[in-house]
Write a structure and sequence with these properties.
Elements (H helix, E strand, L loop, with lengths): L20 E4 L17 E8 L24 H6 L7 E7 H11 L10 H12 L1 E5 L11 E5 L2 H10 L4 E5 L2 H9 L5 E7 L19 E8 L5 E7 L10
């Protein structure tokens, strides 16, 4: 799999239970602490084609490094490497979690991998990983726990716990729900220069619009765009008139 597709962002069905259930992996060393006085920032990551598909298609330059093999390209640096010091929790759906464990855990990482991917695996190994699933019973990855229930209550519960900032790393269905319910403080988009026409969609009908403020836009060498948006808080407009 090309380096630019090494972040696996897959969706999972969220439970409809009106409560939040949680359990810890037997190997977890994470202790949940409440009553933090710090506000935990929630960031959602999106990886999509121009037509809003959550896929990693082939296109000219998709498998070429932007510079030194051991250094992250701009999208990886902005969305991940620059966040290692402030993020302590990564939330993933079931498919994203099992995909990351299979590809990005230290156990799975080859010793001759580029340095930035080895650093990414070390980051994931030490960070708290929350898997949203009602199907998985055993996570088999240190510092991991299961949560299920209403997504807004899960995010609110995590924000009340002590810790650093939070990244929501999921597929289209999860992120669509995050946007629909205005659960993130900011959003990072990687937009690939392809109209793909198939695969899971990020965009579905919504009952209200969500307003975002553009913070930065970066052109990548092979036509990708890296966009950073801040969520505008407050009641979203429900019409255009």
């Amino acid at each position: 799999m090309p380096l630019k597709a090494r972040i696996i962002a897959n969706s999972t069905n969220l439970d409809a239970d009106p409560y939040v259930a949680r359990s810890f992996d037997a190997n977890s060393t994470v202790a949940v602490r409440k009553d933090s006085r710090m506000t935990r920032k929630v960031t959602a990551n999106l990886y999509m084609t121009i037509d809003g598909r959550g896929e990693f298609p082939k296109y000219p330059g998709y498998d070429l490094p932007a510079g030194n093999r051991d250094d992250p390209d701009e999208f990886f640096r902005r969305m991940w490497t620059d966040r290692y010091s402030d993020v302590t929790t990564v939330v993933m759906g079931r498919r994203s979690f099992t995909g990351h464990r299979r590809v990005h855990s230290l156990k799975a990482r080859k010793p001759d991998a580029p340095k930035f991917l080895l650093d990414y695996s070390r980051f994931l190994e030490r960070v708290e990983k929350v898997c949203l699933s009602h199907r998985l019973k055993h996570l088999n990855w240190a510092n991991s726990r299961l949560m299920s229930g209403d997504l807004a209550k899960i995010v609110a519960s995590l924000k009340r716990e002590e810790g650093g900032n939070i990244i929501l790393e999921g597929g289209p269905r999860l992120i669509h729900e995050v946007i629909r319910r205005n659960l993130a403080d900011d959003y990072w988009f990687l937009i690939m220069p392809v109209v793909f026409g198939r695969g899971p969609r990020y965009w579905f009908p919504m009952t209200a619009q969500t307003n975002l403020k553009l913070l930065s836009a970066t052109n990548m060498p092979y036509g990708e765009l890296v966009l950073h948006y801040e969520a505008r808080q407050g009641k979203a407009a429900t019409g255009t008139g």
